[in-house]
Amino acid sequence: MSVQIRNATPVDWAAIWPFFHDIVTARETYAYDPELTEEQAETLWMSPSKDPLSRTTVAVDADGTVLGSANMYPNRPGPGSHVASASFMVGAAARGKGVGRLLCEDMIDWARRSGFRSIQFNAVVETNAAAVHLWQDLGFSIIGTVPEAFHHPKHGYVGLHVMHRPL
């Protein structure tokens, strides 16, 4: 599958929203409020593209179909702004096909080019084995786990990993 990563535009939101909504309301991998309205979700996901230190991207196939999206930004303001962070979502039809890997590789490259010293993911659900494995394969380490910080619909209270990668 030929996939291109490009900056998201406001027009892309219509294609992102369906998988964003499905992922968030499943309550298995994101601690976002499942009651977010579409407008609130758009502000949350797309707003990094309005900040010069941040970016929202989409992964598109050869036909221009949006397969997934990422947003990236400084993890903290001020004295913590030298550490990047990001969030990733891939539509169900594109999962397991390398789209998440491409989005993360692009994010790592962006963070390096932008002068960040490292990347920190603040809340990787420990039962999200595919994401944990992928992030580790891309050089991230679990530096801590907050016990029972996420209420999973099937597994009950599970930990949230904090993952880190130096640049």
List keywords for this structure.
167 residues; alpha+beta; Aminopeptidase; 7-stranded mixed beta sheet
Structural summary, described in words:
It is globular, with a radius of gyration of 15 Å. Helices cover 28% and strands 36% of the residues. The mean pLDDT is 95. Helix 1 (13-26) packs across helix 2. With 167 residues, the chain is of the alpha+beta class. It has a seven-stranded mixed sheet with strand order 1-2-3-4-5-7-6. It has helices at 13-26, 38-46, 99-113, 129-137, and strands at 3-7, 55-61, 66-74, 83-90, 118-125, 141-152, 156-166.
Give the SSE layout:
Blueprint: E1 3-7, H1 13-26, H2 38-46, E2 55-61, E3 66-74, E4 83-90, H3 99-113, E5 118-125, H4 129-137, E6 141-152, E7 156-166
Parallel strand pairs: 4-5
Antiparallel strand pairs: 1-2, 2-3, 3-4, 5-7, 6-7
Helix pairs in contact: 1-2
Average residue pLDDT: 95
Characterize the largest beta sheet: strand count, sense, and whether it forms a barrel: 7 strands, mixed
Helix amount: 25-40%
**What's the order of the H and E elements?**
EHHEEEHEHEE
Radius of gyration: 15 Å
Count of beta strands? 7
Number of structurally distinct domains: 1
Low-confidence stretches: none
Class based on secondary structure composition and strand pairing: alpha+beta
Query: Do you know the CATH topology?
Result: Aminopeptidase
> What does the overall shape look like?
globular
